[in-house]
Structures are given as C-alpha cells and as structure tokens.
Design goal:
By secondary structure, the protein is of the alpha+beta class. The protein has 13 helices and 6 strands. Helix 1 packs across helix 2 and helix 2 crosses helix 3.
C-alpha cells in the first residue's frame, strides 16, 4: 500500500479544491493513484451535491457581463446557502464562467443552459454545478438569467445584491453624444433606487388599472365629505388620484432621483434636446438577489450544540 504524504494530499487539494480529509481519503482508497483519486472525488462530489438539493439557497449574487462589442448583455442570479460563500473569490469567478458560457451558447432557458459545455471545459454546466456544490460545501442553484441586446446600460448594486439592465431606442445623434453614457447610467441607477414594474403607462395591463380605480373610488366614497358628489365627479377624482399609482409603478413617471422636481420622462426629454437626438426607454430587467425565495433561519444555539457533539 502506498504511503500517503501531506504533500500528496496538498497537491490533490490544489488540483480539485476539495477538503484535506476528503483528499486524503480519496488517495488512501485509490492507493495513491491521483487520476483515480480525482475521479473518486468527482463521483463523491456528485453524490454529495444531490444530498444538498433539499437545503435552502437564498443568498448568492447577481452579476452581469457584456460581450466584447458591448451589444449583448447577460445577467444571472446564482444562489448559495450563506452570504459568506457569495463573497468567496472562487465562487465569484465560477459565476463569471457561467456568464461567459451564456454569451457563447445563448441558451433559451436554465434547462437548456444545464446542457451547455461550461466555459473552457468539456463538462456540462450541470456537472460543474454539482462539482462546485461539493467543493464549496453548500447547495448552489442557478435560478435565472436573461440575455439582452441593443443599446443598453447596466448596473450592479451592493456587490451583487441587485442587477439592472435598461434597453433604449436611440438614434445615432443621441448615442454618439458624449453625455449619453451618463444619461443611460443615471436611468439604471434610477431603477435600482426605485424598482418598479412597468416602463410607462401603456405597459400597465388594463385589468390592473381597473382594479386600482375600483380601490380609489371605494376610498373616495367612504369619505363623508364626498357623499353628495355625483358619480362623474367621483370618477374624475379617481382618475386624478391614479397619477400617484403611475408614479409608483412606471419608470418614466417616477420623480428623477437626482432632481426630484422633474420626472424621468422630463429628464429624458431634456437630454434629447441637449443631445440633438431621439431617446426612448424601451424596457428593463431587474434581478434582486433572493427575491421571493424562502430565507434560511439560523438557530445558533442548535448549531453550536451540533458542533460540540
């Protein structure tokens, strides 16, 4: 039987990123054969990854990457169990690899993405995800991604807590103006500061408007001061109050964060005039890390008791 030295264990750990004890056990079980030990660790990694799938992963990060020509942007959310792992440089580099893979493969959805070959390897994304789960020791989950093309601005907030992509329709006079980049960045910052659902009023579904109007009219009628007012007056009052709804739910109706005396639409119009071109905000995507996911609840007393045992 081969003698397993600390140097061999360290070398295998450097090759695989696995824990020292796991590396030692793999070398012992394969009589010091590195190739077989790596295979054993990969096989063990896949088994451990499967065992972790029932655990909660609501931390992680959102990241964005642009193509070399800046005409395509990819945004992804990858979840982890703890924020500590999300701050790990190796995990962050793995996410960059996922972004490069999406740019190269242009998958339609996460399911298709899992079958793509991971950047610079012959392994699929699914295989590398399970390997990373084993190496890192936590459940990892590729929750979602989006691919956008055209004239865009992007923004990552709080080291990956939120990501924003804004799509514009703008002519050459506007895009080529030196002030356009700052304008586009400001719109991305606007959305990050005030996340909303729609670009403008035309994007709001009619049923959403009808439901809001019904609520507003009920509130108006409940006020004794309005008891004697005719229905047409109440309807006009309701339409006036609907403007507040648009300010909260539509990007262009929001007060501009850097100068709240004007709306985003007015800021855009001012920039159009200054740039001598046409600009329209056509769409956006905003990912907030862990949004809507079940959060992990820590019981520290229980965790310490487990550690002591």
């Amino acid at each position: 039987m081969a003698v397993i030295t600390a140097k061999m264990v360290a070398e295998l750990r450097a090759m695989t990123g696995c824990g020292m004890m796991d590396c030692k056990k793999a070398l012992v079980s394969t009589d010091g054969n590195f190739e077989e030990a790596v295979k054993a660790l990969r096989e063990k990694g896949l088994a451990k990854a499967e065992a972790k799938q029932s655990r909660i992963a609501a931390e992680g990060l959102v990241d964005i990457m642009l193509s070399d020509d800046k005409k395509t942007a990819v945004m992804i959310e990858v979840n982890t169990e703890t924020d500590f792992v999300a701050k790990n440089e190796k995990f962050q580099e793995y996410v960059k690899g996922l972004l490069r893979t999406i740019l190269a493969c242009k998958p339609a959805n996460v399911e298709e993405f899992m079958g793509c070959k991971f950047d610079g390897t012959e392994d699929t994304v699914e295989v590398t995800l399970k390997e990373q789960t084993f190496i890192i020791g936590e459940k990892l989950s590729i929750r979602r991604f989006v691919i956008k093309e055209g004239v865009m601005s992007t923004y990552i907030h709080g080291k990956g807590s939120m990501g924003v992509i804004i799509n514009f329709e703008a002519d050459e006079a506007a895009v080529n103006n030196e002030g356009f980049a700052e304008y586009a960045k400001n719109i991305a910052l606007q959305l990050a500061a005030n996340p909303c659902e729609y670009v403008d009023r035309t994007a709001v579904p009619q049923e959403k408007i009808d439901a809001e109007l019904e609520i507003i009219m009920t509130q108006i009628k409940a006020d004794p001061k309005n008891a004697s007012k005719p229905q047409n007056i109440i309807e006009k009052m309701a339409m006036g109050k609907l403007g507040k709804f648009y300010e909260e739910h539509c990007l262009v109706d929001q007060g501009y964060v850097k100068e709240d005396s004007m709306s985003v639409a007015q800021y855009t119009a001012n920039c159009e005039k200054a740039f001598g071109g046409k600009i329209a905000i056509k769409g956006f995507v905003c990912f907030t890390k862990g949004e809507g996911l079940e959060k992990r609840e820590e019981n520290f007393a229980e965790e310490i008791a487990k550690m002591v045992k």
